[in-house]
Amino acid sequence: MSRTNSDKTSFRNQNTIIIITTIVVDFLIANIQCSSVNYDGDIKLVDGPSEQTGTVLVYRTYGWGKVCDDHWTMKEANVVCRQLGMGHALEVHRRNRFGSSSQANYLMDEVHCTGSEKRLTDCRFNGWGVHDCRINEEAGVKCAQKAVIIDKPLWNPLKLKFTQLELEKMSKIKFKVISQQLNLSHHPQSSIFIPVLIETKNGTKGTVCSDHFHAAEAIVFCHQLNAGRGGRVIAMPIEQTGINTTNPIAILGYCYGNETDLKYCKSYIDYNGISCQSKLAAAVECTNNLPDLSPDRYSLETSAYIQKMSLWLLECALEENCLPDIVYRIIDNNPYNYTWMTRTLMRFSSIIENSGNEVFRPLEDPDNWEWHACHMHYHSMKVFSRYEVVDTEKRLVAVGHKSSFCLEDNLCKSGVAPKFRCSNVVDSKGTQGISPGCRDMYLHDYDCQWVDITDIAPGQYTFQVSFNPDFLVPESNFFNNALTCQMTHLGYTAVLRQCRFIHLNDLF
């Protein structure tokens, strides 16, 4: 059967339609797969000069829409900022302050919030799309801070400045540990430190960068060499290791401490030398005598409560940087009348026991301890503990920290005599530490023994508290240095429950 010209034309047209349809379908599928998922009530800021400033858009059924500025006050702005994880509102804006050119419809009008709502759509409003607004009535806000999204990707837990492809390539290089003991005669008491040396499969020998090699890595290293249960890590000039290279060839880190070989931790190797900020090699003083800190779960769960305090009562806390950055910005803008402002604090007790067989000592030499006149004692560590509140979107919404006011033996087991007491005299630094079998107690009424939750709305959160959080002081075990709890913020009080131990690496 022969085909006519019209048949050929029809056939070509059908093919063209099929090809175009296929392209369109592929395009739509790609967009669906690549676009982020949004839900009714989600909000975002657009057209502003910064991430935390702009016109408010709200999501509803496959599209974004505007919020009308009728009855747009600081209460509504605060709810927006809290929902975004950006603290509280600094400014409320109306009349399309940021010149938004969006052609989207108004989806919310006459929004009335009490200020405690978790989401903007929890507030009272006219109904979706019900409005009497005209052009240039868009609502906007300026929030106090950027949202801190907790991002610890599996492919880069050490947050190294390499691409994923580069890290994957460097992580595939096999190696073995070839360390031997080294006597550093110039070091106090002639301590024996073992430089961390490796050899790759092709015979390249080199050192390990000290930047990410801490106490957890030392546990694995010392066990692997049968030289102890862990130890203190120092940064050593490469020429003292016996290796003739300019830079370390490896970054090793993110150990848990129960690995049998350093090769089971995260490792990244470059035969020609790896980017190492310190340009120093890691070395370890191995020992069998180590402390082991462990916080008390019961005291944490049973001591939590909320207290409102004026800034004039928090002068010492201000001096010691226990409050969030936004408070210091508020003070800069209101240097003469900030004292009447109040903050909402979640207080709790931290009781830490040393269940190891050695004293937990401050990392810093006493000559480097800092005297704080407000509290009348020396601080011996930059950060002894860290307190964090994380919302359901894995955003860090509140952070607190406590310098070691003074490490001392407050309560010891029967038969154990306390050895450490802090001095409150500037000319006498005293001794600081936590003896084996003793507890250091920071009760809920101590200054800075809280986290500032002023800028988060009532709701469900995760609260986590960690001790020796940066692995800087050697311990025998890091699986019990942190607690994570379910936190219920009720507005008038807070409840912590189901607290459990967690490894420092597994914190949000």
UniProtKB/TrEMBL annotation:
GO molecular function: copper ion binding; protein-lysine 6-oxidase activity
Cystine crosslinks: C113-C123, C255-C265
Keywords, in A-Z order: Disulfide bond, Signal
Statement: the UniProt record of this protein carries the keyword Transmembrane helix: no
Keyword Ribosomal protein: no
Organism: Schistosoma mansoni
Protein name: Lysyl oxidase-like
Domain SRCR: 43-144, 175-287
Gene Ontology terms: cellular component: extracellular space; membrane
